[in-house]
Automatic annotation (TrEMBL):
<dbReference type="InterPro" id="IPR016039">
    <property type="entry name" value="Thiolase-like"/>
</dbReference>
<dbReference type="InterPro" id="IPR013746">
    <property type="entry name" value="HMG_CoA_synt_C_dom"/>
</dbReference>
<feature type="domain" description="Hydroxymethylglutaryl-coenzyme A synthase C-terminal">
    <location>
        <begin position="14"/>
        <end position="182"/>
    </location>
</feature>
<dbReference type="GO" id="GO:0006084">
    <property type="term" value="P:acetyl-CoA metabolic process"/>
</dbReference>
<keyword id="KW-0808">Transferase</keyword>
<dbReference type="Pfam" id="PF08540">
    <property type="entry name" value="HMG_CoA_synt_C"/>
</dbReference>
<protein>
    <submittedName>
        <fullName>Hydroxymethylglutaryl-CoA synthase 1</fullName>
    </submittedName>
</protein>
<dbReference type="GO" id="GO:0004421">
    <property type="term" value="F:hydroxymethylglutaryl-CoA synthase activity"/>
</dbReference>
<dbReference type="GO" id="GO:0010142">
    <property type="term" value="P:farnesyl diphosphate biosynthetic process, mevalonate pathway"/>
</dbReference>
Length: 229
């Protein structure tokens, strides 16, 4: 049967069970029924993986793994022991990939899973520490990227002050399009007279951390490497 392009309108007398498969593809009532039926499962299994997607938007290639990071960061380490998660990604066409990951049973201190889990506990804080700019400034940033795309040789301009400690950034592109990268030092950098939380997390100076604690009233664990708690 050829599809006419018009959504199938289910009459009040027609049960969903009586619908032909072809007539369910564009049926909004059927779609809503499935959404309502799966809501509890969605809230439990899928929603925890959408934190970064909701905050950042579509990142294309890294989107799937940003969802994995969101899921790991939202769970207690005990709840991750030995579980299996489904990883599903799809493009705008017909291509899609589905595979699963099984987490380790070892969640002891120093284990790979616990180390990975612990390293992601600052995700919400990092998202919250982003700097807001005006639409005009944002447009200027995008315009600069557009006009310099594929330029060679090229040396990017701009301040490194707002990059997280440890961030890799493009330093130079030579005339053969070979790229050189550098990493923001993991040290304490003052911004507007105060230390940012992210910088304190990567600072090994107890004295500097104590000063930050005085001005911010943020609890800090003064161990070998200063960490926010």
């Amino acid at each position: 049967m050829e599809y006419s392009g018009m959504p199938f309108q289910q009459s009040k007398e027609t049960s969903r069970r009586d619908l032909r498969l072809e007539d369910t593809y564009f049926n909004k009532e059927v779609e809503k029924a499935f959404v309502d039926h799966s809501k509890t499962v969605f809230e439990k299994k899928t929603k925890p993986s959408l934190l970064i997607a909701k905050e950042v938007g579509n990142m294309y290639t890294p989107s799937l793994y940003a969802c994995l990071v969101s899921f790991l960061a939202s769970q207690n380490i005990e709840d991750l022991k030995g579980i299996r998660v489904g990883m599903f990604s799809y493009g705008s066409g017909l291509a899609a990939t589905l595979f699963s990951l099984r987490f380790s049973d070892d969640i002891a201190k120093g284990s790979s899973l616990r180390s990975l889990h612990d390293s992601l506990q600052n995700i919400k804080m990092r998202l919250g520490s982003r700097i807001k700019v005006s639409p005009k400034t944002f447009t200027e940033i995008l315009k600069l990227r557009d006009t310099t795309h594929h330029q060679a040789p090229y040396t990017p301009i701009g301040s490194l002050e707002d990059l997280f400690p440890g961030t890799w950034y493009l330093e130079h592109v030579d005339d053969k399009h070979r790229r050189t990268y550098q990493q923001v030092k993991k040290s304490c950098i003052q911004r507007n007279g105060l230390l940012s939380k992210m910088n304190v997390m990567n600072c090994e100076s107890t004295k500097v951390a104590e000063e930050f604690c005085k001005v911010s009233a943020t609890p800090i664990c003064l161990s070998e490497n200063v960490q926010l708690v």
